[in-house]
Specification:
By secondary structure, the protein is mostly helical. Helix content is about 85%, strand content about 0%. The longest helix has 29 residues.
């Protein structure tokens, strides 16, 4: 139980930090330019919080805890990110007018990388601290 809790908190904090930098500092102007009227002025915090909590549960259950090495955590985290973000971005591309191919590719790559990093950090800290 302690290992799972450490894995969850470490993965969540890593993912929040990475996504905060990506969405808040690096890509906010690009997303606003490419998605324009599709974006809200301010994100809705409750759905965002539910997403992060739920997504990190998936990361921990499907990647971090079963992994035997940090390399496996990174690879499986990348695969989970590829599938999850691909599902989101490709569905948006298929159903939303004004959803750009550029956003799809950037966001998909980002989700793959961020998930791989967060799962790796979660794995390493859970292994070290539990």
């Amino acid at each position: 139980m302690k290992k799972a809790l450490i894995a969850y908190v470490a993965t969540l904090l890593t993912f929040l930090l990475l996504d905060g930098i990506w969405l808040g500092l690096l890509m906010a102007p690009t997303y606003r330019e490419l998605l324009g009227p599709l974006m809200l002025e301010k994100p809705l915090l409750v759905p965002a919080a539910v997403f992060y909590c739920l997504y990190v549960i998936g990361c921990v259950v499907f990647v971090v805890l079963p992994a035997l090495t940090w390399q496996r955590a990174a690879k499986m985290g990348a695969l989970l990110g590829l599938v999850a973000y691909g599902t989101y971005d490709l569905t948006n591309m298929a159903t939303l007018r004004g959803w750009s191919v550029q956003v799809t590719l950037m966001d998909w790559a980002w989700g793959t990388l961020a998930t791989a990093i967060a799962c790796t950090v979660g794995f390493l800290l859970a292994k070290r601290l539990a």
